[in-house]
Amino acid sequence: MFIQGYSEVSVKRAGVRSDVVCDLKWGAHFKFNRDIRELFPYINGAVPDARYQVRPPHTRFVHENVQCSLYPKEAMVAPFRGQRQCFLFIENLIRFLNDLYDRRKSLSPSHKVYREPVSVMDILKALPRNNCRECGRKTCMAFAVALREGEASPAQCPGLAKPITTYTVFPVLGEDGTVKSTFAIESEAGEPRADETRAPSADGKSDKTRRDRFGIRIQYDLTPREIEVLRCVAEGATNPEISERLNISPHTVKSHVIHIFNKINVNHRAQAAVWAAKNQVV
Ligand code: SF4
């Protein structure tokens, strides 16, 4: 049996407002006798509307009208009419989880992470808001709406900052070449994934290479104009000064700087200057 028991059950009155007429006022917290996180992808695949998260690993779902929040070694469940109902439900929940575990080979695990809905205004705040139209939309607002509706991809806006984290699911293949299981890696921004590569530039002259933390060769495809801008940045020039020196608009300079930062995986100008020196751009 996967989960053989539970302990440290704490049954408490849930925080129901005094003006609400409701007899479902109890909730429970308890600990599993083992780490159950390997079940989360199966719950995610089998339970409609399960909300799986990886940081911290947990999943939330409704089972028999009870809200369940499961962490690797503990769980919270609510609401109930009384303490007896709490205990009956915990037994029921553990039976449900053990049954899922027993049936796991016939189930399809899902590693899809639940994302809280995001508003158009929140997306807009992350965009450069210069209406440059490089994404094919007339305004950043139009792009934000399309992104919210799933009709656009973040990659279409070259000025959009790199994501803070990247989440990648890798397959584990058996001897017969079929996928036996999967594992996920969430890496911080600036830590390129092992499979991350960039296409070489057309002239092949501006490519700079280095190895990432996995020992994989990473190629940079700075354009000649981006190298010019990077040289100016490395010399300590401000955006208005670069604009004047290269005879391009401040907006274009800003756009180049963002592209450069994304390509060489740095977050500010001092890091870019160091990178330029190390890679003999200056
Ligand atoms: S490419 Fe980005 S900055 Fe330009 S209009 Fe589209 S969303 Fe706005």
UniProtKB/TrEMBL annotation:
Q: Which residues form the HTH luxR-type domain?
A: 215-280
Citing just one GO molecular function, the answer is: 4 iron, 4 sulfur cluster binding
- Annotated region (Disordered) at 184-210
Alphabetically ordered keywords of this record: 4Fe-4S, DNA-binding, Iron, Iron-sulfur, Metal-binding, Transcription, Transcription regulation
Domain 4Fe-4S as annotated: residue spans: 115-178
The record's section on Pfam families has: FeS, GerE
Biological process (GO) annotations held by this record are:
regulation of DNA-templated transcription
What the entry lists under SUPFAM superfamilies is as follows: C-terminal effector domain of the bipartite response regulators
Signal peptide positions on this chain: none
Basic and acidic residues: which segments have biased composition?
Answer: 190-210
* PROSITE patterns, alphabetized: 4FE4S, HTH_LUXR_1, HTH_LUXR_2
According to the UniProt entry, the coiled-coil residues are none
Protein name per its UniProtKB record: Transcriptional regulator, LuxR family
Organism from which the protein derives: uncultured Desulfobacteraceae bacterium
